């Protein structure tokens, strides 16, 4: 197999004959050789008899370093080389199979359930929140009134945090496993096939609910179970090595599920699950996470910067990303370097409230599939390690960073409540240059954040370890990455704090089981072993494989983990 690249204007596709001619040249065949072209984004793949070679479109990206162009990476195979289409394993009827309880219906839980179907095991998915459609009512209420439903919000409910925060599938890492199993299933359940080849695949908040619903229907049709409004309150080990999973249904009725294996995929905000684990003496560890602000610019400005003035209608809304090492206050009073980076960038997106507890303020971003909002937003966050938090938090052990995170979220809410008690869902906000100069903004620009904003001294509300590094990084980005980024027309809103879990549930890297008890499989972001939709989904797949391996030791080993 050989690879080559071919380019074309943004918004167009390369001519198939151009791909064939280029393949013939790379493979040293005659110019008019018969070459089949496989495009994974198309449902129909025309093939010609007697083909001397086959090409597959493997990757697509935008190159804006000079003239803006679309770059396609093509794989070329001689007819003697295998070039088979990727095929998913079949889902089995598991109605009478051994049950496996999956706690949480986010990406990790959903893809664990799908893999269990493939492996002939019965997933019983327990989700504290509502189904993906009923969630919308609670999120609308949060945006309008500031009232948080602790069991149904932007983080809890079918699809998890990712279902209503854009559906970006940016990881391309193959260390954890084959990401095609995730991408091809998403397409199977309704996502645009373009995610298979795009450099930055994206489904869109408007499209994800249907995809998530279709996954649930598949699990149920094959004999699995889904239970919503079902909050896990306890996991009791039994003498025979199995477990009783105790749940509270609709906040009233107690229902118990018995199983030999539990996949714990509860997401990065399920504080009560960590408390339950801690009460049993099972191992927990503090884990570094990142905290900062949501930064909102006009999309027109980002387009101008990223496309170098060449943006035209029809071109995709431009994205950006950066990572810098910035010095700031350290645990011993001396400056230390910490990573400051953009996170969850939403071109043509909007900002949404993402709190899971009353009297806290948390922000996130999302985009619809068209990415046609006039704003662009991204989290810009600072890495925080366990040793960075003030001494009074360290006494809480594994909960040190989570308590620190929660206090900052409360501080944001309390400031807004003190300034505008009639609108508690508003976000504290500050213009970018004002923030860096440490002064209040006299007024604030228009924003996509529906609940509104309150002018606030974010440079004081944020911890020093975060604020001082952010004040340094914005001019650096302006100088090194995007001239024009550092502007007082840009708005900072607080706080972006749910980047990943601040707690890890330690597990064996080979068996994926809890270090404390066999049969419990900590999984995904909530366990501290993933950071996004795709990595969480792959972790769910690997945990399902590990469960099957425990039940049937002759099975192939799952991929070993690479902890976030």
Secondary structure layout:
Layout: E1 2-8, H1 16-26, E2 35-38, E3 53-63, E4 69-78, E5 99-103, H2 107-118, E6 122-126, H3 135-145, H4 180-188, H5 208-221, E7 225-227, E8 230-237, E9 243-249, E10 253-259, E11 262-264, H6 271-279, E12 285-286, E13 289-298, H7 299-306, E14 323-328, E15 336-346, E16 350-353, E17 363-366, E18 375-384, H8 391-394, H9 400-419, E19 427-431, H10 432-437, E20 453-455, H11 458-461, H12 464-480, E21 491-496, E22 503-504, E23 520-522, H13 524-527, H14 533-551
Parallel strand pairs: 2-3, 5-6, 5-11, 6-7, 11-23, 19-20
Antiparallel strand pairs: 1-4, 3-4, 8-9, 9-10, 12-22, 13-18, 13-21, 14-15, 15-18, 16-17, 19-21
If you had to describe this structure to a student in words, what would you say it looks like?
The chain has 564 residues and is an alpha/beta fold. 26% of the residues lie in helices and 24% in strands. The protein contains 14 helices and 23 strands. A 7-stranded mixed sheet has the order 14-15-18-13-21-19-20. Strands 7-6-5-11-23 form a 5-stranded parallel sheet. A 4-stranded mixed sheet has the order 1-4-3-2. Strand 19 (427-431), helix 10 and strand 20 form a beta-alpha-beta unit. Helix 2 (107-118) packs parallel to helix 14. The model has no long low-confidence stretch (mean pLDDT 92).
| Average pLDDT over all residues | 92
Straight-line N-to-C gap: 33 Å
Mass-distribution shape: globular
Label the structural class.
alpha/beta
List low-confidence stretches.
none
Strand order of the largest sheet: 14-15-18-13-21-19-20
Number of strands: 23
Major beta sheet, specifics? Answer: 7 strands, mixed
As a percent range, the share of strand residues is 15-25%
CA-based gyration radius: 24 Å
What fraction, in percent, of the residue positions are helical?
25-40%
Distinct helical segment count: 14
């Amino acid at each position: 197999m050989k690879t080559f690249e071919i380019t074309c204007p943004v918004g167009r596709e390369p001519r198939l004959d151009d791909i064939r001619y280029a393949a013939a040249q790379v493979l040293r065949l005659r110019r008019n050789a018969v070459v089949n072209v496989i495009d994974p984004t198309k449902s129909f793949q025309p093939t010609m008899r007697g083909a001397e070679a086959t090409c597959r479109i493997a990757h697509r990206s935008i190159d804006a370093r000079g003239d803006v162009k679309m770059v396609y990476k093509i794989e070329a195979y001689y007819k003697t080389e295998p070039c088979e289409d990727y095929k998913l394993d079949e889902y089995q009827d598991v109605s009478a199979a051994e049950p496996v309880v999956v706690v949480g219906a986010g990406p990790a839980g959903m893809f664990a359930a799908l893999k269990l179907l493939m492996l002939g095991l019965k997933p019983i998915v327990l989700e504290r929140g509502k189904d993906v459609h009923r969630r919308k009512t609670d999120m609308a209420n949060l945006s309008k009134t500031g009232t948080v439903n602790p069991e149904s919000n932007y983080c809890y409910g079918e699809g998890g945090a990712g279902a209503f925060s854009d559906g970006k599938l940016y990881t391309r890492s193959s260390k954890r496993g084959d990401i095609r199993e995730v991408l091809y299933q998403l397409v199977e359940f309704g996502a645009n096939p373009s995610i298979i080849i795009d450099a930055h695949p994206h489904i869109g908040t408007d499209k994800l609910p249907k995809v998530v619903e279709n996954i649930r229907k598949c699990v149920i049709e094959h004999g699995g179970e889904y239970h919503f409004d079902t909050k896990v309150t306890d996991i009791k080990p039994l003498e025979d090595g199995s477990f009783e999973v105790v749940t509270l249904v609709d906040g009233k009725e107690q229902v118990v599920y018995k199983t030999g294996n539990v996949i714990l995929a509860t997401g990065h905000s399920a504080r009560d699950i960590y408390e339950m684990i801690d009460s049993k003496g099972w191992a927990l560890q503090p884990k570094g996470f990142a905290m900062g602000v949501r930064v909102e610019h006009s999309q027109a400005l980002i387009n101008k910067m990223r496309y170098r003035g060449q943006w035209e209608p029809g071109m995709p809304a431009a994205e950006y990303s950066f990572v810098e090492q910035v010095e700031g206050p350290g645990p011993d009073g001396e400056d230390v370097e910490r990573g400051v980076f953009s996170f969850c960038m939403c071109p043509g997106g909007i900002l949404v409230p993402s709190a899971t507890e009353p009297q806290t303020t948390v922000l996130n971003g999302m985009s619809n599939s068209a990415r046609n909002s006039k704003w662009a937003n991204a989290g810009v966050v600072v890495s925080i390690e366990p040793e960075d938090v003030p001494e009074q938090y360290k006494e809480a052990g594994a909960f040190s960073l989570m308590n620190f995170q929660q206090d900052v979220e409360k501080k944001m809410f309390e400031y807004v409540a003190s300034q505008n008690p009639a609108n508690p869902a508003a976000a504290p906000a500050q213009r970018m240059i004002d923030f860096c100069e440490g002064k209040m903004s006299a007024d604030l620009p228009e924003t996509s954040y529906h609940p509104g904003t309150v002018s606030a001294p974010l440079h004081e509300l944020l911890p020093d370890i975060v604020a001082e590094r952010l004040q340094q990084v914005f001019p650096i980005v302006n100088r090194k990455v995007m001239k024009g980024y550092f502007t007082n027309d840009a708005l900072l809103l607080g706080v972006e704090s749910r980047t990943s879990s601040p707690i890890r549930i330690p597990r064996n890297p080979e068996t994926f089981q809890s270090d404390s008890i066999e049969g419990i499989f900590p999984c995904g972001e909530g366990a501290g072993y993933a950071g996004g939709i795709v990595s969480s989904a792959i972790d769910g797949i690997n945990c399902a494989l590990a469960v099957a391996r425990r039940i049937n030791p002759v099975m192939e080993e799952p991929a070993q983990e690479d902890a976030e």
